[in-house]
Amino acid sequence: MAKLILSLDGAVLREIVLNKERTTIGRKEHNDVVIDNLAVSGDHAQIVSILNDSFLEDLDSTNGTLVNGNPIKKHFLQNGDVIEIGKYKLKYLNEGAAAGHAAEEFEKTMILRPSAHTPAAPAPNRTGDDTLVNTPAYSPGREEEMTAKVAAMPAGHLPVATIQLLSGPNAGRELELAKTLVTIGKPGVQVAVIARRPHGYFITHVEGANFPVLNGKVLDAQAHPLNDHDVIELAGVKMEFFFKSE
Amino acid sequence: MSLVKVLEMASATDPGLVRSHNEDSIAVDADIGLAVLADGMGGYNAGEVASGIAVSLIMSEMQQALPSVDPHAAGGVSGETIGEVLLRDKIGRANASIFQAAISQPQYAGMGTTLVAALFYDNRVSVGHIGDSRMYRLRAGQFEQITRDHSLLQEQIDSGMISKEMARLSQNKNLVTRAVGIDPDVEAEIHTHAVQAGDIYLICSDGLNDMVEDEEIGATLGMLEANLPLAATQLVQMANDNGGRDNISVILIKVLSEFPAQGGWFAKFLSWFK
What is the 3-state composition of chain A as percent helix, strand, coil, each rounded to the nearest 5? Predict the structure, then answer.
């Protein structure tokens, strides 16, 4: 469950658990989070929470709402965001996102009954009891633990390699291999692809009757790892693969 | 009419790096022009059972039904083609059969599956889908998603609560609002699209599109279209390189040439004289 830590000048005042679908913030008594300060509007802002996600919305307050220093009208809150209202700060913490475990539990596709849920912007006071049907019996402690934060990691910290043409009309030209995939050769004649993966570069034959030659040896249809200063021969052109030292 | 010479199909499925088993099921048959992919869900092995029932039932019943009909002919009450009617019918049967298994056997209780079934005929493709498995099309360098997920996140995007860019950060991925086999009836969303020679279609489970950006998927297809099997394994590999948190399944269909329906009015007209 996500929560907010309300503080003033570094001193924590209270902790608010976002267990309601709509949590309101303002100077007036009827708000869920009442901040009795003249810089705060009567109805200043609200946070709409849907399952694990929370959205902050400024309710046309006089002095505005900041998130991480930037004024916002509507904002999709991320773990660690700091909301500023007047001199007050509200830190948004979403344990699920931080720990990775609850997030992992959500990784399994689950069915949300359409009947229990309205797609439009949620109306106030609706009971937040969206039912998760078919929650799979999830047993923690299996090898699934390790997953935590590997999401969408780009092709690792591998140094960027370069290819330099050694023969042919463009001899001397260099091609930096910064992308995940780079194809080389002549389409329709002979093409190979060089894939940049977390643990290295790999070359694979794509099309053409002839396979690429690596250090004098003809390759097969499989992917082959490339090492510093390997020489590739393709469509009659020789080229060298190497890591540039900075 | 066999489409073997017209459609090139390649596929790959992989459990990913995290899950111990693969709950996805896929099947392709270029002869009848059908590709089916399902991403099952449910405890223990129930997910595999659900996706397996869906894919094998739809594939085998279509293989039986198609040779004796003209899928492009009108067949439904509202002007649907026979192809669309068949898809709807077989998806309904798969739903009933999974639902029956789920209520009759306790270990399968609550199982369900997403589904994409694509049937190619007469220069078009009819796509039936349920849940968050997707179909994309690469045409003349343009890579586009042609199914719309039945998911909470998609509904939030549609209602303007969250932008497409912000959706990547959502914690509410993987919540589907529709699935095969959880209710006695299911409504498949069926659309028919015109097909052009050179098109490449991708059907995938969310294990691919959650781990690899659409842009990168499209670029990969564009680069490797000359070698479809390599493109399929490359996509799986990219999802794994990015973490491989879910099962990854990919079906690629390349349209080599146009395939207008034969046996149209002229052929039928001729047959009167035989």
Answer: 10, 45, 50
Say how many C-beta atoms besides its own lie within 10 A of residue B60's C-beta.
13
| Cα A98 to Cα A82: distance, rounded to the nearest angstrom | 15
Q: What distance in Å separates the CA atoms of residue B178 and residue B181, rounded to the nearest whole number?
A: 10
Q: What residues of B are in contact with residue A136 (Cβ under 8 Å)?
A: 41-43, 47
| B115 close contact with A: CB closer than 8 A | no
For residue A170, name the pLDDT band (cuts at 50, 70, 90): confident
Backbone dihedral region of B49: left (phi > 0), alpha (psi from -120 to 50 degrees) or beta? alpha
Per-residue pLDDT, B273: 60
Question: Which residues in chain A (7-46) have CB-CB distances under 8 A to chain B?
Answer: none
β-bridge mates for residue A55, sequence order: A48, A76
- β-strand A110-112 against B175-176: which pairing, if any? parallel
Res. B197: pLDDT tops 90: yes
Give the number of A-B residue pairs with CB atoms closer than 8 Å: 144
CB atoms within 10 A of CB B257: 9
CA pseudo-torsion sign A29, A53, B156, B219: positive
Distance from CA of B213 to the nearest CA of A (A): 9
In chain A, which residue's Cα lies nearest the Cα of B225? A206
The whole-angstrom separation of Cα B274 and Cα B266 is 13
Identify the three-state secondary structure at position B141: coil
Global pTM value:
0.77
> Which of B154, B175, B211 should be substituted to probe chain A, the one whose Cβ sees the most A Cβ atoms within 10 Å?
B175
Residue B139 has pLDDT above 50, yes or no: yes
| Phi, psi at A238, each rounded to 5° | -95, 140
- Going by the DSSP 8-state scheme, the letter that residue A244 receives in this structure is P
Rounded Cα gap, residues B179 and B83, in angstroms: 22
Taking CA B3 as the corner, what is the angle to CA B2 and CA B7, rounded to the nearest 5 degrees?
165
**Residue that the structure tokens 């298994």 belong to:** B101
- In angstroms, the Cα distances linking A46 to A27, A93, A165, B138, B169 are 12, 16, 60, 42, 20
User: How many CB atoms neighbour CB A213 within 10 A?
Assistant: 14
Cα angle B102, B108, B113; round to 5: 75
Q: State the pairing for strand pair B34-41/A11-17.
A: unpaired
φ and ψ at residue B67, rounded to 5 degrees: -60, -25
**Cα A76 to Cα A67, A111, B169, distances in angstroms:** 10, 23, 9
Retrieve residue B56's tokens: 């094998």
